[in-house]
């Protein structure tokens, strides 16, 4: 037997429709134990393609009945299979098919008694399971509740009623990679800006203190249990561009400014949803295959001849400047980084060239 569709009625009976080459189109009703309770068949017709059960009116509805694609109600009271509904054949449960017909208008389809035919319920179950999967994938759910399945420690859902466990799970969090875009006051338009601020670090002339750069927010700065004056001997300074404009683009600088020297450096902290790793690659302007380019620019760090050293950071190649900040305070200082060959291999690197960088996410 080749089932085309299935349906479950309010009494947990399973209805199957399809076509068997030697018998024609069929409808079979099974109880929860897999026992065939009633069968109907129409020879020399196209396969029944779909079925729906109406318990209140005691009818079923099938499509593609006879030679046309239309609906045909059939009474579901059915014909009992007989005194021996289940037999054994090679160790597997089998059902005995007894067919009956009906009459429809001018189409004379009379009741017939067909030869006894065996089919294996195990084979049918495999096909029914496949149909259930296909229907579920199409959004036509067959609810396990109607089959009396239990959940949460064998507690029946119908008895305990709806509860928190029945609610759909919350949507997944909007998680992703977070990175700092050095030199830019805002992240890209398709990336969330968590906050923006200015670059800070230790003083260029101090022998101690921090060696890494921070993006300090400008809005909603919060304090807690502060003391006036200096007691702890560790300080944060604003960072300035040093040197000429070099290779930087001036397109994002205020009108009339062609040299970023002595201006404070903005920054923004960016959250990109759906990508969970990020990397800064020096000496590159493009990302590996399968990675997204967030921005590219130039490596910057502290001066080799100053007392403090610091991390290398990737500053955007078309940076912003903090307006009105060209006072040359000389706190933390950022310089373009140049290649030194000999210690670096010649060929890929060239003496004195400013090193590029790119930030990638995946």
UniProtKB/TrEMBL annotation:
Sample GO molecular function, one term: carbohydrate binding
Alphabetical keyword list: Lectin, Membrane, Transmembrane, Transmembrane helix
Keyword Cell inner membrane recorded: no
Keyword Transmembrane helix: yes
Residues spanning the membrane: 96-121
Domain of life: Eukaryota
Protein's UniProt name: Uncharacterized protein
Species per Swiss-Prot/TrEMBL record: Branchiostoma floridae (Florida lancelet)
Lineage: Eukaryota, Metazoa, Chordata, Cephalochordata, Leptocardii
């Amino acid at each position: 037997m080749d089932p085309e569709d299935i349906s479950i009625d309010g009494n947990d009976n399973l209805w199957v429709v399809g076509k068997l080459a030697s018998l024609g189109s069929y409808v079979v009703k099974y109880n929860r134990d897999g026992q065939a309770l009633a069968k109907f068949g129409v020879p020399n017709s196209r396969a029944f393609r779909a079925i729906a059960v109406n318990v209140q009116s005691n009818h079923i509805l099938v499509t593609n009945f006879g030679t046309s694609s239309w609906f045909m109600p059939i009474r579901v009271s059915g014909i009992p299979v007989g005194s021996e509904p289940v037999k054994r054949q090679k160790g597997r449960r089998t059902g005995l098919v007894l067919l009956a017909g009906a009459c429809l208008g001018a189409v004379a389809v009379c009741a017939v008694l067909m030869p006894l035919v065996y089919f294996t319920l195990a084979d049918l179950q495999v096909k029914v399971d496949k149909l259930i999967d296909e229907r579920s994938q199409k959004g036509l759910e067959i609810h396990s509740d109607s089959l009396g399945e239990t959940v949460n420690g064998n507690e029946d859902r119908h008895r305990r009623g709806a509860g928190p466990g029945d609610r759909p799970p919350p949507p997944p969090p909007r998680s992703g990679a977070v990175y700092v875009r050095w030199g830019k006051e805002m992240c890209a338009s398709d990336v969330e800006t968590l906050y923006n601020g200015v670059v800070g670090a230790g003083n260029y002339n101090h022998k101690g203190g921090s060696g890494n750069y921070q993006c300090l927010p400008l809005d909603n700065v919060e304090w807690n249990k502060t003391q006036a004056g200096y007691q702890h001997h560790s300080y944060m300074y604003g960072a300035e561009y040093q040197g000429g404009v070099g290779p930087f683009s001036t397109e994002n600088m205020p009108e009339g400014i062609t040299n970023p020297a002595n201006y404070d450096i903005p920054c923004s902290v960016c959250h990109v949803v759906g990508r969970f790793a990020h990397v800064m690659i020096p000496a590159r302007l493009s990302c590996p295959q399968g990675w997204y380019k967030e921005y590219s620019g130039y490596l910057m760090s502290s001066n080799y001849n100053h007392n403090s050293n610091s991390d290398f950071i990737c500053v955007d190649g078309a940076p912003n400047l903090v307006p009105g900040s060209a006072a040359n305070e000389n706190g933390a200082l950022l310089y373009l980084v140049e290649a030194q060959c000999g210690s670096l291999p010649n060929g890929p690197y060239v003496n004195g060239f400013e090193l590029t960088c790119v930030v990638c996410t995946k």
